[in-house]
Design goal:
The structure holds two protein chains of two kinds. By secondary structure, chain A is α+β, with helices and mostly antiparallel strands. Chain A has helices at 17-26, 44-55, and strands spanning 5-10, 34-39, 58-65, 68-74. Chain A has one domain (5-74): Translation Initiation Factor IF3, CATH 3.30.110.40. Chain A is built from two helices and four strands. The longest helix of chain A is centred in the middle third of the chain and has 12 residues, at 44-55. In chain B, 33% of the residues lie in helices and 16% in strands. In chain B, the strands form two sheets. In chain B, strands 6-7-9-8-10-11 form a six-stranded antiparallel β-sheet, with helices on both faces. A five-stranded parallel β-sheet of chain B has the order 3-2-1-4-5, sandwiched between helices. In chain B, helix 1 runs parallel beside helix 3 (61-69) and helix 1 (15-25) crosses helix 8 (188-197). The longest helix of chain B is centred in the first third of the chain and has 19 residues, at 100-118. The A-B interface holds A 12, 14-17, 19-20, 23, 40-43, 46-47, 50-51, 53-56 and B 35, 37, 41, 43-45, 47-49, 54, 58-60, 62-64, 66-67, 70-77, 239, 269.
Chain lengths: 78, 347
């Protein structure tokens, strides 16, 4: 796998800000790249996957640890 | 076969924009959605903050609407640009600090820029003549079109029969006969149309979607400006106004006291930006102090926080005062009685 892998810090941001951060970062990435958003708003667990479904991207992993939610998105062709 | 036309729909997450978009999709138009985040949107925040609300299913309604319609949704952060609308609304405020008319003009101006940049043909809104006292009146709707620059590239499918034909109708991209003539504040026609389309689980109609329409919130925002001597805010400021009890015992500082654990957790995330008070001897709230405080102010704030703790009837409670840089000091104070907190302190 040759794609890029990035993380973005969305801690303390309330939805929809984590979605906006993911959206704006994904615009700079290419199909197949991975992006992990580190969130503290549990709403991100609903909203980021919903945003991915309607915009042609895929959530490949979700991890919850110590009040943090790590959501990894594979960028689609959009 | 004509060229496929493209429309941008302003998606609030409510029923009207859902229906308006569906009506246009049914005429073979390709639609994408856009949702503007001002920082004052009610959507989600209080659910995210308050622990007791976390058991409820939570969703972003704009995303949900887009998913129901099968359209892409662009969520746009306009927090900074929007400040000028809040500070200097050309057409003034509504009942509170809500600049509804200027807000609509601003969003449609942004939408006009977006369709120009992205090769779309027109914009859709779920507006209905007579539904809102400022921004959705028959006399203000043309003004919104003029001042935003969108002109006749704005289609309001739910109320089109009450308005002059727009560009998409005149050009034959849209069949005016398949649009609607809803007007007034009744929601029954929308609910009937929702049933016709098979939409059942939509956001409750006619709910306020902006904290600026809320009287209590507006009082707190006015207080923020007054205390700073200027009209200014950052995103964190307007988020904090949504959380906790705001109590101003002195003109130069206020205390933000959590009302339950979720709010306490949220407020504690601001410990590096504000001095804070935490209950030690009894169960109770977490509080932030907004303003420059001296030892006397801290003691006064501690007595207020004690009032909202489980030690309110005790002779003395213990708290921990923490400065922005993390220096902690224990404090023992007598909690205030209810009648020692004047009503005018409560924002």
């Amino acid at each position: 796998m040759n794609g890029r892998y990035e993380t973005i810090d969305c801690q303390r941001l309330l939805c929809p800000m984590p979605v906006i951060r993911v959206q704006d970062r994904v615009e700079q990435l290419h199909a197949g790249d991975l992006l992990t958003a580190i969130c503290t708003d549990p709403g991100a667990l609903q909203d980021i996957p919903a945003w991915c479904r309607i915009n042609g991207h895929e959530v490949v992993e979700t991890e919850t640890r110590d009040g943090e939610y790590l959501i990894t998105v594979r960028v689609g062709t959009g | 076969m004509g060229e496929s036309r493209k429309a941008l729909s302003l998606i609030s997450g409510g029923l009207d924009s859902l229906l308006a978009t569906k009506v246009v999709q049914q005429q073979g138009i390709y639609v994408e959605g856009i949702n503007y985040f001002t920082g004052f949107c009610v959507e989600g925040h209080t659910h995210a903050i308050r622990k007791r609300d976390r058991a409820r299913p939570k969703r972003n309604n704009a995303l949900w609407v887009a998913e129901q319609l099968g359209i892409k949704l662009h969520i746009v952060d306009i927090v900074d640009e929007y400040k000028d609308i809040v500070f200097n609304p050309r057409y003034g405020y509504g009942a509170n600090l809500n600049p509804c008319l200027d807000c609509k003009i601003f969003m449609l101006h942004k939408a006009a820029e977006w369709i120009d940049a992205n090769g779309f043909d027109f914009v859709i809104t779920g507006e209905v003549v007579g539904q809102r006292p400022k921004s959705q009146r028959k006399d203000t709707m043309p003004l919104v079109q003029r001042d935003s620059g969108i002109g006749d590239r704005l289609l309001r499918p739910l109320s089109a029969h009450n308005l002059p034909p727009t560009l998409p109708e005149r050009e034959g991209w849209i069949d005016r006969g398949r649009l609607y003539g809803f007007s007034g504040r009744s929601r029954k026609p929308q609910m009937a149309l929702a049933a016709e389309f098979g939409f059942e689980d939509y956001a409750q109609p006619a709910g306020g979607c902006c904290f600026l329409t809320d009287a209590n919130y507006s009082v707190k925002l006015q207080d923020l400006w007054q205390s700073r001597g200027e009209r200014r805010y950052e995103l964190d400021d307007i988020m904090l106004l949504k959380v906790g009890r705001h109590i101003r015992p002195r003109s130069h500082f206020k205390v933000i006291v959590s009302r339950e654990q979720g709010e306490g957790n949220f407020l504690s995330g601001y410990r590096k930006q504000y001095p804070s008070l935490n209950m030690i001897s009894h169960g109770g709230p977490f509080a932030l102090l907004d303003g420059e405080v001296d030892a006397e102010d801290v003691e006064l704030a501690a007595r207020i926080v004690g009032r909202y703790s489980q030690g309110r009837d005790a002779n003395e409670v213990e708290l921990e005062y923490c400065t922005r840089d993390g220096n902690k000091t224990p404090l023992r104070v007598r909690p205030m009685n209810a009648d020692e907190i004047p009503a005018e302190w409560l924002l």
